[in-house]
Please model this.
Amino acid sequence: MAPQPPGPRAAPLRGRPPSPSARLLLPLLLALSGGGRAAGEVFTTNAICRKKRCINPIFPGVEDLHRLEQATWVCSSMRAVLPSLGFCRGAVHYAPTLPILADAHDTESMVRKQDTAALTMFYYHMAGLGFEAWDYQDPANADDCVKSIWRMVCYTYFPRAQLGCEEGMTTAYLRPCQSSCQNYIRSCGVECCDESVKCVFSHTKALPMGMTMVQTGYVPHDGPSSMCTGGARRLASPSGLLWLLLVAQGAQWLLRDGVSSLAQLAGRSRALGCAALLFIAITIQGCSVEVPIHHVGNWRAEPDYLITYEFVPPGGSAHAAMLNSCSLPDLAQTAQCGGRGICRLWNEDDPDNPAAFCKCDRDYADPECGTRRKSQVVAYVLSVFFGILGADQFYLGYTIAGVFKLGTLGGFGLWWVGDIIRIGSAPVQAKNFRVASDFPHWAFVLCTVVLALMLGFTISYVTLVRHISQRRKDAMLMQAQEEARMGGPRGSDAAAVKLMNKRLTTHMPDYGSMSTAVPENPPAFAPPQFQPMPPAQAQQPQPQPVLAAPQFQPPPPPPPQQPQQPLPQPQMPQSTWMREQL
Model:
């Protein structure tokens, strides 16, 4: 028989409220005891934690564990099951058991039913996480998170056969091992900010009409084990091993070279530490810190995606709700997928596998095509014009990232430019599903090139204007400094006087007899002296003369012209060499 989950559960608290120390220890005691009833479950509230992939149900297929355990199972063999496996072919590597179903009488039909059930749960859990299941039709070659979900659903619907069970014998249902659950939590980074994310738990679930059901988790054993279904615990990633090696190297250096330094430091701070402990022991009077708690796990408080994405047939009630409208062959196509998509076979290469799911239109998502996607065009426009304020992140649903982007003004411009390229080049992941692919790539390239040209032109124009303005300011500053150095506003006149004196004192070159003698000490050119004007005296009013009318005077005759005399030729003095020759 399958091992039963841990039995003891915490009783509800009665009497006076628990003390602060009891509130601190109570979640730990509940975790060690395996959980409690709905009235006795207590979880601490972490106000600074950020939830990540905290959905309801938190584990794929956990809601079906109780139903599967109530079914009748028969042992089978790997040889009989493998030819009919499709989705779980690479995950089931052991002798499984199969349920006895009313509508399946042979091994092939039972395997097909269970394989479709595992695929359906995989499809819906991916939708609950906000992923597109159609992007992971080969989960065996996907990332670690998708691979862990694939393995968990296959371990859930294809349990391991007990040891010694021969083919055809009835047996009990072996739940998945806790190692498979822990691999999923680690690979997908599940965080609900409380103690509710546990692989081994016991929870009392309220049902309609006042009924209750005790829901238990996975087997507290690590696989591979004969007491549960599943593989071994996933080893640390290469990056984790690298950090471990670095820590070991640092510890070795500390033990070799840092022990002496630490001993000296400890000796000096020992007295200070003793004084601090003594002060705390004297002044402490008890702890009155109130730790906030809640009685419903964070992931259980989230909306159930199996109910959110369920399909209610036309004219049916909520009791007739089911998963996957494509599983009804007689349903009209207009009623399938909410009228916003078509049913498509999961594996078109295998016509014997009837598993089909909704392939939604461009602007819709989720298993029944009822969720409208965010627009890539809107996200790109917001990223270009208001991305420096984080508007694109707010639109995509990432509030914390938008606040950080707003506080850093687009990551000092780098985050802003990166988001423009990232959002415009391809549809990005929003908080719920990917954005609609309504922005063609050629439009992105054209808009980006035009934007880059406009931005470059603007930057060049502003830089040129600033450069010209700075040059003008520098020239005016140099002129003002030169005027101040030359003696005020008449510095230009003084400079001209100095230049004229320099020219007068310079000897002209001697070109033989045509040279002109220049006195050795020529008089310096003296600048004009500016005499101050005498003070204004009171002027007596003078009588204005009466102007007579002008009389016309004939112009005087031109003077007689004198005959022009020829200009005397200058007599060239004879040099000494010419006189000797004569």
Summary: The first strand starts at residue 43 and ends at 44.
